[in-house]
Specification:
Rossmann fold, 7 helices, alpha/beta, binds S-adenosylmethionine, about 220 residues
């Protein structure tokens, strides 16, 4: 466990203001200036993404991919390494600055962008979109809106991979990270996406964490 209480404190303070997302930059700025660690940064690509891509023998072959809330860029670099032409964005200038520092020769197009204020059509719709752990970090009242925007970034016939902590409908949401329910993630279906694969599993982290990993495809 790394700095979970600091994260929760910053999030709680921010969510009581008119700018509920400001805590991400505050946290990354602290990491930069004070050397504190970021709880979701393990310095490697997310194993839940890597395992999925390996199991499905996914190769980019020059196709475009888009990463939502990319943090320090390890997932983006992984997708680039298997042949995708990757755009990766994050709200936090400090996170994007650190991604560029970690990967100075990267082919990834790193951008500072707010999911809720994207300069469409500059970002545009993509054939492969990855959302891991951003929805679970948002204030609950922002989740439905975020789902609508993320879905709009998937082109027709394109796919969206969502990886998130999960819970039963009857379980309380609790503190950050806020696991999503099946009802939450099924909102993607209302946005023109169809489920191709739905995994509800416990990963092999210590302690193990229950997750959903869902592959959607845009049908309309
Ligand atoms: C919990 S972290 C997960 C980071 C990364 N996806 C991962 O799996 O390690 C959530 C990320 O989403 C970013 N984020 C939060 N709200 C955002 C928004 N509205 N637009 C873009 N990025 C956002 C945060 O700055 C943070 O880097």
């Amino acid at each position: 466990m790394k700095n979970r209480s600091l994260v929760r404190k910053l999030a709680k303070e921010a969510e009581a203001t008119s700018d509920p997302l400001q805590w991400f930059e505050k946290l990354y700025d602290k990491a930069d200036k004070e050397g504190i660690s970021i709880p979701w940064d393990n310095g490697v690509a997310n194993p839940n993404l890597v395992k999925f891509c390996e199991r499905h023998h996914i190769r980019g072959e020059g196709r475009k991919a888009l990463i939502i809330g990319c943090g320090f860029g390890h997932d983006a670099e992984y997708l680039a390494s298997i042949g995708f032409q990757v755009t990766a964005f994050d709200l936090s200038p400090s996170a994007i600055g650190e991604a560029k520092k970690r990967f100075p020769n990267s082919p990834v197009n790193y951008r500072v962008e707010d999911l809720f204020n994207l300069p469409n059509p500059k970002i545009g719709a993509h054939p492969f979109v990855i959302e891991s752990y951003t929805l679970q970090a948002l204030a609950r009242e922002l989740v439905a809106k975020a789902i609508g925007v993320i879905a709009s970034l998937v082109e027709t016939d394109g796919q969206l991979l969502v990886i998130t902590q999960s819970r039963n409908e009857s379980e309380a949401v609790g503190d950050l990270p806020r696991p999503l329910t099946r009802t939450d993630v099924l909102q993607f279906e209302n946005e023109g996406l169809q489920i191709l694969e739905f995994e509800d599993y416990t990963d092999d982290e210590d302690p193990p964490i229950r997750r959903f990993r869902i592959l959607f495809q845009r049908t309309i």
